[in-house]
Design goal:
The protein is mostly beta strands. It contains no helices and eleven strands. The radius of gyration is 14 Å and the shape is globular.
């Protein structure tokens, strides 16, 4: 129904930047929000950034606020996560996800129905 493919992960030194990309395809009209989640080894999955496609409202976790930026391209088929001033604690598998139509706030983790395969981000000290 909806396919998401992430790319852009890699190994970088602390202080450097990466940009993750998520290409979406399929019945994307059924989605109304995009989010980036991450899961570090031995840790719970967390929402780090999200954007509402209907209102353009964004959300950032406190741990990444001011360093990460979520955006989408003009064709609205790709969502990006610009990651600046990376820290070792940012090391995780990052997942792109899409949620269906919902009136939940952009900060909510509910309603995410489609997920990408994940891309590894490793930040060395």
């Amino acid at each position: 129904q909806v396919r998401l493919v992430e790319s852009g992960g890699g190994l970088v030194q602390a202080g450097n930047s990466l940009r993750l990309s998520c290409v979406t395809s399929g019945r994307t009209s059924t989605t109304d929000g995009m989010g980036w989640f991450r899961q570090a080894a031995g840790k719970e999955r967390e929402l780090v950034a999200a954007i509402s496609l209907s209102t353009a409202t964004t959300f950032y976790a406190d741990s990444v606020k001011g360093r990460f930026t979520i955006s989408r391209d003009n064709a609205q088929n790709t969502v990006y996560l610009q990651m600046n001033i990376l820290k070792p604690e940012d090391t995780a598998v990052y997942y792109c996800a899409a949620r269906g139509l919902t009136f939940a706030p952009v900060s909510s983790t509910v309603g995410y129905l489609y997920w990408g395969q994940g891309t590894q981000v490793t930040v060395s000290s």
